[in-house]
Amino acid sequence: MPTSSKISVLNAPDFSHTFSRRELAQKLISGLAAGLASPLSFSFHPIRRYLLNAALLDSADIHLLANGKPLLLSKQQLAALDLLSEAIITGARKSQAASFIDVLLSADSQEVQQGFLASLNAFETASQNKFHATLASLSVAQLHDLLVDLSVATAPDHHHFNNLKDWIAGAYYSSEIGMRELGWTPDRVFSQFPSCPHPEGHV
């Protein structure tokens, strides 16, 4: 991974949506229903149930296109999630994964919200403990090292790493850019999902 002094945060999205999230969800769910393996195949995946909520997906499209303010997360939390998303899956920023997660969380229960915030806060705490700095101030190399530390199965915060990784992967692979990476194109349905091109840990 290249090193630079700082990581840019929440750049203006340059990804133009051709298909709505509702349309993409229908196509993705049809592939899952056919028994095709994908990063969202597990029934307990945190994103999967949202793909069945057409009204929420429509609201998310409106919010993302307007580049609206965070609905649940603070600006600092959204910036931190954006950094982590791009570090875990290259292209997550372009798909607006962090903002999409914020919209989904805003419509969920307090229990789910608190669980997600606990995982995000765990990363901030780990950053302070390791580098005495916030996530937003870490260099690319430092953020990479932090993710490597937390991705280790024996790490105390490994479950928080897995939680955020699942949310981020779900937000990315349910976007148009993520689905195209999986092999979907507008002129055909999935014949199969290729294996996830991002290895375990995505670091």
Descriptive overview:
The protein is mainly alpha-helical and 203 residues long. Helices cover 52% and strands 0% of the residues. The termini are close together. It has helices at 21-33, 54-65, 75-88, 97-106, 110-131, 140-151, 158-173, 176-182. It has one domain (21-182). The protein is built from 8 helices and no strands. Helix 3 (75-88) crosses helix 4 (97-106).
Short recap of the structure:
This protein has 8 helices and no strands. The protein has helices at residues 21-33, 54-65, 75-88, 97-106, 110-131, 140-151, 158-173, 176-182.
Write the layout of secondary structure elements.
Blueprint: H1 21-33, H2 54-65, H3 75-88, H4 97-106, H5 110-131, H6 140-151, H7 158-173, H8 176-182
Helix pairs in contact: 2-4, 3-4, 4-7, 5-6, 5-7
Q: Can you give the helix content as a percent range?
A: 40-55%
Helical region count? 8
Low-confidence stretches: 1-9, 11-17, 191-203
* Assembly of the depicted chains: single chain
List keywords for this structure.
mainly alpha; 0% strand; disordered N terminus
